[in-house]
Amino acid sequence: MSQSSINLTVTLDTIVGSRTDSDSAAMTGSMRIELDSYESPTTITLHQYELNAGSLSFFFDYSFLGTISATAEGMSMSMPAGATPVTGTVMPDGTFLVTDVPNQTAGLISVTGTGAAGTALNDTMLDLSTLPQDPIEVSGIVNVDAGVVTIAISLPLDNSTMDPNTGTTVTLAGSATVIANGDVPEPVCLPDTNGDGAVTPADFSAWIAAFNAMAPACDQNGDGACTPADFSAWVGNYNAGCN
To answer: Which of 43, 73, 88, 122 is surrounded by the most beta carbons within 10 Å?
Structure first.
């Protein structure tokens, strides 16, 4: 994710006026996706992402009224643990949009100031994890070439909060741009139920054992259940073999 970054604009609305500043930083992290096809995908599923940003600094000049400085540390965006994977449609040109993606933003923004502007702010600390954690829309483009999946996505970072003690409103507007790639996963060979890398009659005994144990390898028709219908599916998969 060497080309990934976060771009953030912070607006302060205080009793002495409104000021805006922007900054950007590199991002690191990981992401796990799934495509329904690694040749011509029509859907993409987000399973997990955890993105961490470098430090961001902001400066707000209120002229003779003083200045305000803000520093964002430990900013991150992630899917909460245990969140249900979310699927979206991939268009023929590779673009996609995934809606209602559970997102958790964290990090601390510390704000200090001088003069009347600083007094109006009274040194504020903003914990991003306490802000509303609404689902987001994730858009981007995905491409598969020579066994490598490349994905470029944009995650919005928009929020606002008011300090009831000072009346100051802090508004965040920006996005995280993530560019990542990974190898196409090895295809699953369903009839190889004993996992020895070959499709042989021994896999029948392994399927019977999986059926009796209600193990994942029993599900040969992909319906998410282990039933007698999976025997016919296993026979079909066995006859088809694997490349």
So the answer is: 88
Tens of pLDDT, residues 94-129: 999 999 999 999 999 998 999 988 888 877 788 999
Cβ pair 44, 66 in contact under 8 A: no
Same domain, 161 and 203: no
Name the region of 143 (left: φ>0; alpha: ψ -120 to 50; beta: rest): beta
* CA dist., res. 74 & res. 107, Å (int): 5
Q: How far is CA 179 from the centre of its chain?
A: 12
C-alpha–C-alpha distance, residues 217 and 195, integer Å: 10
| Residue 169 shares a structural domain with residue 219 | no
Element (H, E) at 138: strand 136-145
**What is the domain count for the chain?**
2
Cα separation, 32 vs 29, in Å, equals 11
The candidate with the shortest Cα–Cα distance to 184, out of 151, 217, 216, 155, is 151
153/150 Cα distance (integer angstroms): 10
* Residue among 149, 143, 69, 141 nearest 109 (CA): 69
pTM equals 0.75
Where is pLDDT greater, at 125 or 176? 176
Tokens representing 191 are: 């009839």
The single-letter DSSP state of residue 235 is H
Domain span including residue 164: 5-183
Q: Measured in Å, how far apart are the chain's first and last C-alpha atoms? A: 32
Please indicate, yes or no, whether residues 135 and 191 belong to a single structural domain of this protein. no
